[in-house]
């Protein structure tokens, strides 16, 4: 069967300017007629210009698509596929099974499958549902957020757009893993549905010592996590439960839901209160929470001992040599966002390493990583990551903390107290 491309007339929307983390609006805004089509076509028009520059006029590329499972996500995936099928510059779209892919996994898979760009359907830690928020974010070929000059170009195009191209009757079942081929007016177009959990697991196995982690899980420590019904749930169950041995009952709220089960999926002391209350009982040694799209994390010790994001990245920096990936690749430098406390700077100074201060936005860390100057970075808003991908990564941060605890054979509180004694303790507050 051959599919036909249709050109549809449209009118611009004036509010499609992306912020540092993409375009976020109320879900009903995205559900307006032509709203998604305009924005994605504007992205494709900008992308086609970059393809011309890098690959020439005959160049064709692949695209990664996934999202955090929030309301309207699957419908948006279907619309993107219809639009991508109509773009002769896109030869293949790689989609997460059921459209579910954490933001760190999207970055991982862009790099693994070497796609030219990626589309992430997320509003991060914002609530989801028909009366809550939705978002679309673009990533580039290094796996990191699109740079500002590119998103500015998308916005400029969106203010002038008069038409979009679409294959109206195009359908593809994204619930089944595998490669599907289609004929679009004599041109081959492919959709590959992947298991992004497996891809992400394989990357984590290259970074951490899973045998040492399994032994730690067997040692009697009690670990629990809360995914707040966000996209991390399947990754946590596969890695922490099936691979490392955490009890399934300790994987809390790990079924992704379109409205996050009513949770505000932001891992902090306010919105992850049920985890805080559980940890206060003193029955668990380690607790962690994740946000809706999986790039943020909160770490708690026994009795709900809270690690600030600023202290978390500093402690990780001081102990990176305990993680196989950094033993192999070396430690190149550190960075933090401007609002983040100077705890990381003190560690960098003691280690004789550079510590960069950047504006808010993970794309600025990615520039340093791509220039081989950065191994670990963090921000005060519960984001931590390393140069294994180009996004912050909540589950990576949890595995890093567990690796340090396994090596030191001590508690979170004892690690923090020793750290403060050596480096001093930093405080910060927002006005």
What does this structure look like?
By secondary structure, the protein is of the alpha/beta class. 38% of the residues lie in helices and 22% in strands. The protein contains 15 helices and 19 strands. The protein has helices at residues 27-30, 35-55, 73-85, 103-113, 148-158, 196-207, 210-218, 232-243, 273-280, 309-318, 324-329, 343-351, 362-370, 394-408, 412-423; strands spanning 2-3, 6-9, 23-26, 61-67, 90-100, 117-121, 133-140, 163-166, 178-184, 187-194, 223-226, 251-252, 286-290, 297-301, 305-307, 334-337, 355-358, 376-379, 383-386. The strands form four sheets. It has an eight-stranded mixed β-sheet, with helices on both faces. A hairpin with a 3-residue loop joins strand 18 and strand 19. Helix 10 (309-318) runs parallel beside helix 12. It is globular, with a radius of gyration of 22 Å.
Oligomer: single chain
The Cα radius of gyration reads: 22 Å
Q: What's the number of extended β-strand segments?
A: 19
Q: What summary fits the major beta sheet?
A: 8 strands, mixed
Count of helices? Answer: 15
The helix/strand class is alpha/beta
List keywords for this structure.
19 strands, alpha/beta, 5-stranded mixed β-sheet, 8-stranded mixed β-sheet, 431 residues
Q: What are the SSEs and their pairings?
A:
Blueprint: E1 2-3, E2 6-9, E3 23-26, H1 27-30, H2 35-55, E4 61-67, H3 73-85, E5 90-100, H4 103-113, E6 117-121, E7 133-140, H5 148-158, E8 163-166, E9 178-184, E10 187-194, H6 196-207, H7 210-218, E11 223-226, H8 232-243, E12 251-252, H9 273-280, E13 286-290, E14 297-301, E15 305-307, H10 309-318, H11 324-329, E16 334-337, H12 343-351, E17 355-358, H13 362-370, E18 376-379, E19 383-386, H14 394-408, H15 412-423
Parallel strand pairs: 1-9, 4-5, 4-6, 5-10, 11-12, 11-13, 16-17, 16-18
Antiparallel strand pairs: 2-8, 3-7, 6-7, 9-10, 13-14, 14-15, 18-19
Helix pairs in contact: 2-3, 2-5, 4-6, 7-14, 10-12
């Amino acid at each position: 069967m051959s599919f036909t491309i249709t050109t549809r007339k449209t009118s611009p929307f004036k509010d499609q300017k992306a912020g540092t983390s993409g375009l976020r609006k109320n879900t009903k805004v995205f559900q307006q007629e032509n709203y998604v089509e305009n924005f994605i076509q504007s992205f494709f028009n900008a992308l086609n210009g970059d393809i011309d520059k890098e690959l020439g006029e005959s160049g064709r590329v692949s695209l990664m698509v996934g999202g955090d499972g929030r309301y309207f996500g699957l419908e948006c995936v279907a619309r993107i596929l219809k639009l991508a099928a109509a773009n002769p510059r896109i030869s293949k779209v790689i989609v997460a099974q059921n459209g579910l892919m954490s933001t760190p996994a999207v970055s991982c898979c862009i790099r693994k499958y070497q796609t030219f760009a990626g589309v992430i359907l997320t509003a991060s830690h914002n609530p989801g549902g028909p009366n809550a928020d939705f978002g679309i974010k673009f990533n580039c070929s290094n796996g990191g957020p699109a740079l500002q000059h590119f998103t500015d170009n998308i916005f400029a195009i969106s203010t002038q757009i008069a038409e979009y191209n679409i294959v109206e009757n195009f359908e593809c079942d994204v619930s089944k893993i595998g490669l599907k081929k289609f004929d679009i007016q004599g041109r081959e177009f492919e959709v590959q549905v992947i298991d992004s959990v497996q891809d992400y697991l394989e990357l984590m196995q290259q970074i951490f010592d899973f045998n040492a982690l399994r032994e730690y899980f067997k040692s009697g420590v009690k670990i629990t996590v809360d995914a707040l019904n966000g996209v991390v749930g399947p990754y946590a169950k596969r890695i922490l439960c099936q691979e490392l041995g955490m009890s399934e009952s300790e994987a809390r709220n790990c079924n992704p839901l379109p409205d996050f089960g009513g949770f505000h999926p932001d891992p902090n002391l306010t919105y992850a209160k049920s985890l805080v209350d559980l940890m206060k009982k003193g029955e668990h040694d380690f607790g962690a929470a994740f946000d809706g799209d999986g790039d943020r994390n909160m770490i708690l010790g026994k009795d709900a001992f809270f690690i600030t994001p600023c202290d978390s990245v500093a402690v990780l920096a001081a102990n990176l040599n305990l993680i196989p990936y950094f033993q192999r690749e070396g430690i190149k430098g550190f960075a933090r966002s401007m609002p983040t406390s100077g705890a990381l700077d003190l560690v960098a100074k003691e280690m004789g390493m550079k510590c960069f201060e950047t504006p808010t936005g993970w794309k600025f860390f990615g520039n340093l990583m791509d220039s081989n100057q950065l191994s670990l970075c963090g921000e005060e808003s519960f984001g931590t990551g390393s140069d294994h991908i180009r996004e912050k990564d909540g589950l990576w941060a949890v595995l890093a903390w567990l690796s340090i605890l396994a090596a030191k054979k001590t508690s979170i509180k004892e690690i923090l107290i020793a750290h403060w004694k050596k480096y001093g303790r930093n405080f910060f507050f927002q006005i």
